[in-house]
Every structure is written in structure tokens, then in C-alpha cells.
Design a protein that fits this description.
By secondary structure, the chain is of the alpha/beta class. It has helices at about 10-15, 35-50, 65-75, 80-85, 95-110, 135-150, 155-165, 170, 185-210, 215-240, 245-270, 280-285, 305-310, 340-345, 355-365; strands spanning about 25-30, 55-60, 120-125, 125-130, 130, 275-280, 290, 300, 315-325, 350-355, 390-395.
């Protein structure tokens, strides 16, 4: 049975056995939209903040929008409702668990000094599965900082604005499926990529002067804008290509590369404090290779976790959430020869699977089969991918919430 502080005590014991503390502790979920998973994230965060010095939580949400939520929880006067409605992507601001998270962060930070406040960040690129944003907001963030702090800026905003044109050119919902609609390889887009490279290099040249003191936050925002603008322009360039499977593999790989760059920058900012807690889908946080089924294709790519593992080594730690059964979600009891089936047979209790139990599971993976599913959004554990995770937070059974139940 889960308690109010589960899973923190189990994770704390797991972390205590590691040779060094992580800089990024990643918690993944096997599918989106199930409140149990972010509620467990909230409980884990409370323990990490209170006992391990964590001062930042990062979610799979728009990295530019997330700055509004961070401003709210740090008490700058931004109201809660606007922070929830405009500070999240993917509809995450409507989730009760995320509202509970933001409310807890705001309450926790009242009276705390600036260095002790617990911050919020989105680390996803500004894109949905159906398309990506225009690079306008990111370029505006970058160009605005340079206008205020660089001796001169070689590219006037008026020229950038003209090249961007109407944002609907970039965001049309059919672009993802019809390469001919993409503006990513037009003359305007090619010039924007050259301009963005120039501005990035100009920013790198002046950055040391503004890396501390009152300008440090604005510099971080400008660097975020630079990364995001370059990533979006590259992403739109890929959307202009033909060849559906390679196109989608490259697009999904670019998104995860942007995620990893954002998390690496956040981890660098948090150096010397407790682990940054990152929460996203297992497929983004795993090491190795990610893949998914889409219309007629199965793209594969290097996820954010693979990049972070390469950059941080043992200081990147990832825990995968996994479930046995959830009939109300259309997930029946797992086959006995699947990873989840083997875990259910071992114990009916929710638990963190690590150490010897995980080692035995890995050693016997050759006798396990992949669990089939008709739900493209649900990703069971892959017997061949168990090395992608340092531990598994396993819930043998999820029951539907009682009618009218309040979210903790």
C-alpha cells in the first residue's frame, strides 16, 4: 500500500547506495494523463527538497512558457490561474496534480530567500506531436537581450520579423504530415538560420560580462532563446524533407536533443545543490534507443536520456515508472513472461526495484518477451531495454479513482 511519502523513502535508500549523488534525477512515466504518476512525482519532490537539497523541478513542458510558472512560484506577483493556463504546454496546466505542485511550490517559497526557493522549469521544446511553434518568441528573447547588452547587433529586428512572416506559416497543423507545406527550407528560413548563428555567437562573446549579479537571469533566458530558436529552425528544416520514417526519426531526435540541452543547462545552473528532479515520459528519459509507432512508420531516435548519460555519466540517474494492470485504462494483467508479469509474480506491493532484484531481472531478460499493447501512448517495459534505467518504480495494479474523489 502506498503511503503519503511514498516513494521518497525507497528512493532515498536507493540514492544512498550510489557512489555519488546525481545531478539529474529523472522520473519517467509509461503513459501521460494518469494522475497517479505526477502525484508520486509530487511526493518524491517534497522528500528531495526537505532532505536532499533539491531546488528545481523540471517537467516535459514548453521551456519558454515554463518561465511564467517559475516567476509565480518565486513570488513575483504573477497570479496562479494565468500561470497555469499560459505557463504549460500539452494541456498540462489543466491537470490537478500540476496545480497541486505549483501551489505547493508557491507556499514552500513564501518567506524563503532567493537561494533557498524551489524553482520550476519546462524543458521540452515548444512543440506538440502535431507540429512546432514559430521561432519568433525565442528569437525575440535572444535579440532583446543583445539589443540591451551588446555594443551593436548586426541584424535589426525588423529584418527578422519580415523573414518570419505570419506565424501560421510555421504552425499550420498539416505541416507535420505534408512536407510541401513546410517553410523550413525556404530562402527566408535559410537566412534566419544564418542570422540565428550570428546572434548565438555574439551572445557567447558577451556572456561572461553578464553571467553573475542582476543580469544572470536575463542571460540564461537569452541562452534559452538562442538554443530554442536554433532547434526550432532545424526542426522545421527536417519537416520540409520527404521520406516519412527518416523524417520522423530525425524530427523526434531533434526534439529530444533540445530537451537534453535544456536539462544540461539547468543541471549546470544547479551545480553544488541537490539533484534536479526531471519528470517526463519514459521514452524521453531512457538511455539507449527510443522508438514508437506512428501512422505507417516506426521511427527510432536517441532520447534525451541517452544524451544526458553521455554528458553526465553516473550523475544522471533515471527511474522508470511501470504498471502491472490498470483495467480502467484498458491495460489488463500482464503476461507472466513479460517484465511486468515477472514483477507482479514477485510481490503484489508497490515498490522500487533496484539493486539485486533489478540485476536478476536483467540477467533473466532473455527468457522474457515484450508485452504487447494496442495503445500507442502506453509503453510497457522492454526486456532488451532494462539497462536504460537505474531503477523501476513498479505499481502492480492501478485502480480507478473513486467517483468524485479529490486530488491530494
Amino acid at each position: 500500500m502506498m503511503t503519503d511519502d511514498f516513494p521518497y523513502p525507497a528512493v532515498d535508500r536507493f540514492l544512498a547506495r550510489r557512489p555519488r549523488p546525481p545531478r539529474v534525477l529523472a522520473l519517467g512515466e509509461p503513459l501521460h494523463g494518469v494522475e497517479t504518476f505526477p502525484l508520486l512525482r509530487n511526493a518524491l519532490l517534497r522528500g528531495l527538497v526537505e532532505h536532499r537539497g533539491t531546488r528545481l523541478v523540471a517537467l516535459e513542458s514548453d521551456c519558454l512558457k515554463g518561465r511564467l510558472v517559475d516567476a509565480h512560484v518565486r513570488g513575483d506577483g504573477t497570479a496562479l490561474d494565468p500561470a497555469m493556463s499560459r505557463g504549460f504546454s500539452h494541456g498540462w496546466g489543466d491537470r490537478p496534480s500540476n496545480r497541486a505542485l505549483v501551489e505547493w511550490l508557491g507556499a514552500r517559497n513564501r518567506g524563503a530567500g532567493a537561494n533557498d526557493a524551489v524553482g520550476f522549469a519546462g524543458f521540452d521544446a515548444p512543440m506538440e506531436i502535431t507540429g512546432a511553434e514559430s521561432p519568433r518568441a525565442a528569437l525575440r528573447l535572444l535579440h532583446g537581450f543583445l539589443t540591451d547588452h551588446a555594443p551593436s547587433v548586426p541584424h535589426p529586428w525588423e529584418r527578422i520579423d519580415a523573414l518570419l512572416g505570419d506565424d501560421v506559416r510555421w504552425t499550420h497543423p498539416r505541416v507535420m504530415w505534408e512536407p510541401s507545406r513546410s517553410v523550413g527550407d525556404t530562402a527566408d528560413a535559410r537566412e534566419l538560420r544564418v542570422i540565428t548563428d550570428d546572434l548565438q555567437r555574439l551572445l557567447a562573446g558577451v556572456a561572461p560580462r553578464y553571467a553573475a549579479g542582476e543580469t544572470a537571469g536575463a542571460l540564461r533566458d537569452a541562452e534559452l532563446g538562442a538554443r530554442t530558436a536554433a532547434g526550432l529552425l532545424a526542426y522545421h528544416r527536417v519537416l520540409a524533407e520527404t521520406g516519412p520514417e527518416e523524417r520522423m526519426s530525425r524530427a523526434l531526435g531533434l526534439r529530444d536533443t533540445m530537451m537534453a540541452e535544456n536539462l544540461a543547462a539547468l543541471a549546470d545552473r544547479e551545480r553544488g545543490r541537490g539533484p534536479l528532479l526531471a519528470f517526463a515520459h519514459n521514452q524521453h528519459l531512457r538511455r539507449g534507443v527510443a522508438s514508437m509507432r506512428m501512422t505507417g512508420v516506426r521511427p527510432a531516435w536517441s532520447p534525451a536520456g541517452a544524451h544526458l548519460d553521455r554528458a553526465l555519466g553516473p550523475e544522471y540517474v533515471v527511474i522508470a515508472l511501470a504498471i502491472g494492470s490498470a483495467p480502467h485504462l484498458g491495460i489488463d494483467a500482464p503476461p507472466p513472461d513479460s517484465v511486468e508479469g515477472r514483477l507482479c509474480a514477485a510481490s503484489p506491493e508497490p515498490r522500487l526495484v533496484s539493486g539485486g532484484e533489478l540485476a536478476r531481472l536483467r540477467a533473466g531478460s532473455g527468457d522474457l518477451t515484450a508485452r504487447g499493447t494496442d495503445d500507442f501512448a502506453y509503453f510497457p517495459l522492454d526486456p532488451d531495454g532494462l539497462d536504460d534505467y537505474d531503477a523501476i518504480l513498479f505499481l502492480p495494479h492501478l485502480a480507478p479513482p473513486p467517483p468524485g474523489a479529490a486530488t491530494p
